[in-house]
Amino acid sequence: MNKIKKLLCLGIIVFAICLLLLPTPTYAHAFLQQSNPSENEVLTESPAQVTLQFNEPIQPAFHSIQVINPAGDRVDQDNTHVAKDRPSVLEVSVNPDLADGIYMIAWKAISGDGHPIEGTFPFQMGNSGGEAGPTTPITSSDFPRLDLIVIRWLLYLSMSFFIGIVCFYLFMYPANPKGNFLLPQRSRFLLWTSYIGIALSLLLSLPLQTTIDARIGWSQVWSTVWLGEMIQHTSFGTVWIVQLLLIILMCGALVAVNRNQLSSRFRKNSTFVALVLGFGILLSKAFIGHAPTTDHQTLSILMDFIHLAAVSIWLGSLLALAAILPGEASLPTYRPDRKKVYFAVIRNFSRWGTILVLLLVISGIYASLQYIPTVYALFHTLYGQVLLMKSGLLLMMIGFAAFNLFRGKQMNKQLNRSIWIELSIGIIALVLSAVLSNLPTGMASPGPVQQSYKLDNGYRISLEISPNVTGNNLFEVNIHNAAGQEFTEIQQIRLTLTSLDMDMGKYEIIIPNNASTPFRKEDLISMAGRWNAQVHVLTNSLESWDATFTFRAGTD
User: Fold this and answer.
1) pLDDT digits 0-9 by tens, 109-118
2) What pLDDT is stored for residue 15 in this prediction?
3) What is the phi-psi region of residue 480: left when phi exceeds 0, alpha when psi lies from -120 to 50, beta otherwise?
4) b vs e for 414-443, b when ≥16 Cβ sit within 10 Å of the residue's Cβ?
5) Chain centroid, CA 431 distance in Å
6) DSSP tag of 486
7) The pLDDT of residue 178
8) Can you tell me the distance from the alpha carbon of 168 to that of 146, in angstroms, rounded to the nearest whole number?
9) Cis ω on the peptide bond leading into residue 37 (within 30° of 0)?
10) pLDDT mean by block of 10 residues, the chain; 556 residues
11) Dihedral sign, CA of 112, 116, 122, 123?
12) Which residues fall within 8 angstroms of residue 538, CB to CB, at 6 or more apart?
């Protein structure tokens, strides 16, 4: 119980420090909400500047707005900056007296979570005609780069092994309860190897993220200009400094754990400190992932941390069971006693495993509800598909865990083979975790809207919007009576759209009764995000019916 109290106290302290030092969370994968000039706008006077407004604050680094004239020359003054006191607005000055013609605005920015976004759109000076170029509001490639996957996988794997081995000795292995003995050579080797993996992956993460945000290669990134801008002006840089501090402190704690000259109590306390510092690194990762992108930011960060911590303890403990426990020097030499202690550790791990699986399921379901808005997004987005594969691997691990629990109760023979298989599946799952951490969530593709509302008179109003993305969409309203029959005695339907993310006023869509395509019309959704749709139905008998729907529009 004293161990748990110590760990909780240290954990609370680290959590509080991270909340104070780490940047304020923001929403991930920003998108352009408004611009001046707007897309395809025809201007009669030359604008003094171009202004882009995003749905969230953007990073004050690695951004640009270029204004290109019909001849392909830049006519902006190359002074792109975030507007003062408006962190979600990007501005650039434009040369005076622009000639008539079609101009292209090409912009680049970094979302609050560190993901690069970019796009282009046209506007026109005068009424000279001509054809505008294509509009491409895009982000960088959905699938993360190989170097990013490898470095993040190395971090997750090393963190899992380090935290799991420490937890194994602190909470699951009963043969050395007071830390009277130094850790055996194999355990020290695995801990130091894991630490080197953590340090290496964190050190490489700064130039890696710089190549992504600055859109440069590895050969160009080794410059104080690029790295300095990353550290000074981005949330990732702030988190990286905190992680660097935690890594240095962790090294000191790990040295103390393996010093024979120190007292057993000091070594034991140093082991607790090393564990808490490891949890601090996991917590810092939650501040630059998808967790801060939700409405309930603190809860999402906590759930993300719990998920990472549970996975780390599970996988690292499996490594300890497979690679350390069979040859552990402090086990009894008498074979029956050795076997008894071995299976006692297995049963102890199984109890922990039950708790860890429960935490994984709860935090995983919570994350899915936050990042996957619809069933359509689960099956039709890359994020949802990778999440399904990861969930499948987790189910396989749970199956092997149940098998090991059953075999452990029988106490027949050691479980090395099945434990190694369970561990291997977990290592593959970490690869998918590395991929998920840099994929756009399913919020960008919620899929078509299909909702219905039942009136007091028993009639049902249904609203369908397809494909439910920014730009042109097909809006369709259907009305059925209490018997389920289609009701067509309608003069007009008015659909009023109101953004729930910002004040844009109301946008009305009138759907007249057309015999060939009843209650259907093509019209625009101007931006992604949450919307309120009010359907007002006027019947031939001049009755009015109203229904209100809420939906989330996507970008792809």
Assistant:
1) 988 767 788 8
2) 46
3) beta
4) bbeeebbbbbebbbebbbbbbbbbbbbbbb
5) 15
6) B
7) 47
8) 32
9) yes
10) 48 46 46 82 92 85 91 92 89 93 91 79 78 49 82 95 92 62 82 96 94 90 90 89 96 86 79 93 86 75 92 92 75 69 79 88 87 89 92 89 71 71 91 86 87 93 92 91 88 91 85 73 85 93 93 85
11) positive
12) 490, 491, 492, 493, 494, 544
Q: State how far the Cα of 40 lies from the Cα of 205, in Å rounded to an integer.
A: 40
Task: Kindly calculate the radius of gyration of the chain based on its CA atoms and give it in whole angstroms.
Answer: 29
CA of residue 378 relative to chain centroid, distance:
15
Q: CB-based contacts of 512: which residues, under 8 Å, 6+ apart?
A: 492
Q: How far apart are CA 344 and CA 411, in angstroms?
A: 9
Residues 381, 442: contact at Cβ < 8 Å? yes
Contacts 24+ apart (CB under 8 A), 258-266: 258/182, 258/183, 258/188, 260/182, 264/178, 264/179, 264/180, 265/178, 265/179
Looking up tokens 């949890």 gives: 279
**Domains of the chain as residue ranges with CATH:** 2-26+142-444 (no CATH), 32-136 (2.60.40.1220), 449-553 (2.60.40.10)
According to the model, what pLDDT value does residue 349 have?
Answer: 85
Question: Which tokens sit at 73?
Answer: 């020359």
β-sheet bridge partners, residue 499: 531
172: DSSP letter: I
- Tokens (6 digits) for 126: 């005068």
- Residues 6 or more apart whose Cβ sits within 8 Å of residue 261: none
For 336, counting Cβ atoms within 10 Å of its Cβ (0-12 exposed, 13-18 middle, 19+ buried), the class is exposed
DSSP H or E segment with residue 537: strand 529-539
- Token pair 């059953």 in the structure block, residue: 406
What are the distances in angstroms from CA 436 to CA 72, 225, 270, 382, 455?
38, 30, 34, 9, 42
Please give the Cα distance from 125 to 36 (Å, whole number).
13
Q: pTM of the full predicted structure?
A: 0.79
Distance separating alpha carbons of residues 111 and 55, to the nearest angstrom: 10
